[in-house]
Amino acid sequence: MTMPMDQNHQHQEKWSNGTQVVANYNFEGSNPDDLPFKKGDVITIVQSTRDPNWYKGQNEHGQEGMFPATYVQKRREVHLQAMPWYHGKIERKTAEELLNPREDGLFLIRESVNYPGDYTLSVCHQRKVEHYRIIYHKNQMTIDEETYFDNLSQLVEHYQNDADGLCTKLIRALPKKGDSFGAVRIQDFEAGGWVIQKKDLQEIELIGRGEFGDVYKGLYKNQFVAVKQLKDQDRAAQAFLKEASVMTSLRHPNLVQLIGVVLGDTIRLVTEFMGKGNLVEYLRSRGRSVIQKKDQIDFATDTCAAMEYLESKKLVHRDLAARNILINENNTAKVSDFGLAKYGDYSTEGGKFPIKWTAPEALKNNKFSNKSDMWSYGILLWELYSFGRVPYPRIPLADVVMHVEKGYRMEAPEGCPKQIYNLMLKAWNLNPADRPTFKEALAELQNLRSTTV
Ligand code: ADP
Ligand code: MG
Predict the structure, then answer these.
(1) Alpha-carbon distance 284 to 249, whole Å?
(2) Among 191, 356, 393, 442, which is most exposed with the fewest C-beta within 10 angstroms?
(3) Strands 106-111 and 172-173
(4) How far apart are CA 165 and CA 144, in angstroms?
(5) Which segments constitute the Protein kinase domain (predicted)?
(6) pLDDT in tens, 20-70
(7) How many CA atoms lie within 13 A of 278 on its CB side?
(8) Looking at domain 20-74, which CATH architecture does it have?
(9) What is 279-451's CATH topology?
(10) What are the strands, taking DSSP E only, across 201-316?
(11) Global pTM?
(12) Is the pLDDT of residue 432 over 90?
């Protein structure tokens, strides 16, 4: 292990208080004022000093002390790389219509129709469109089976610099209209200080099954964690890493915190451990005899606080439901599951959505926003006060939207406070603009919480 104290490693950037850094080396400290740490530990900056190479920091156990800046790196958010040239699943004929006028080197990439799982590069050359199959195999892509790339962005970059066997180099991307796709680069997790070594992680037991794979209880640095394991490496990896990338930019006491990702053959997402599991199962298994009014208003407020934070960041969750709220040993509720989350107020191409939780404008026109999250929050409140019942009991799934549009609304659950039911009804306004913001809802809930015993 090389020590980073030579002159070439002068620390340049100044870190403000609250900045999180990750240790790249073990630091033993030589003085009682020092804060010893191990590689991978996360330290929060408490104070800078006159010496730009020394900071005062706090570790995860609340201990404070001095440490050299050259032993750590700043934790960085991982962002999606824009892929404006990626048009998703469109047919060859559509691609040829889109690529007009046919200037040499105008290109787009689409999902292959003939070879599911592969992609196609469509590029203009001498007024014609040439289509190249991009073979996707084991997280690698190639056109000529000689040069391989980790992702489409790298492939595009390569052929922008050099035709390398194609009819022309790629000159101009035809941008996709509307919501375009983004991709995650694995290296960015490394550069951002989010990578956990598999040997530092101990898996204890299976605790749940998710869409992408199994969830385990684990031990990392003497702390219980949840480990979400990606089962089918190939196509799901991007979606899985997108969830992780969204989480790198979020920090709030009511959001399930990302601790890191394990890369390699099996990608794993490591988050804080929430010992009491998800809210629906918690409500169903404890019921009215255990769960008090106070617990319900606490869960409602916790969830709303997290949603207000997302709203302030213009992040839309899109899958808010009691099954995606987790409870820890201290009975704090936290929002999880950012698998569908996206930035901005946008529309997007169709997908599978949880019909009973999704706002009508989102289901019909794919208009997702913080206001459609508010609709879902109303459903979540109903779940919470009905102790985990499935919403719209007795209405077949296919008929829900029709009933709702005609004005049908669920009744208040038995014993539900009037203010809470009023909030549900406001959240279920057909006009998104007439629904409250999470900020407004939070103020109401805090008020109600202060008078609930
Ligand atoms: P997916 O959204 O892919 O279906 P989830 O993230 O909802 O997967 O995880 C599935 C289940 O695993 C949850 O319902 C919960 O019971 C359990 N689980 C997930 N994350 C945690 C965690 N951080 N702590 C404790 N249990 C968890
Ligand atoms: Mg889930």
Answers:
(1) 33
(2) 393
(3) parallel
(4) 8
(5) 201-448
(6) 999 999 999 999 999 999 999 999 999 999 999 999 999 989 999 999 999
(7) 18
(8) Roll (2.30)
(9) Transferase(Phosphotransferase); domain 1 (1.10.510)
(10) 201-209, 214-220, 223-229, 258-262, 268-272, 315-316
(11) 0.79
(12) yes
How far is ligand 1, taken at its centre, from the CA of residue 210, in Å?
A: 6
Q: pLDDT by residue (tens digit) across 326-346?
A: 999 999 999 998 877 776 544
Provide residues with CB under 6 Å of ligand 1. 207-208, 210-212, 215, 226, 256, 271, 273-274, 277-278, 323-324, 326, 336-337, 339
Per-domain residue ranges for the chain? 20-74, 81-178, 195-272, 279-451
Helix intervals (H) in 10-164: 92-98, 152-161
Q: What's the gap between Cα 234 and its chain centre? A: 19
- pLDDT of 177 over the 60 cut: yes
Question: To test the ligand 1 pocket, which listed residue (278, 280, 285) has its Cβ within 8 A of the most ligand atoms?
Answer: 278
Is pLDDT above 60 for 234? no
CATH fold, domain 195-272, is Phosphorylase Kinase; domain 1 (3.30.200)
CATH of domain 81-178: 3.30.505.10
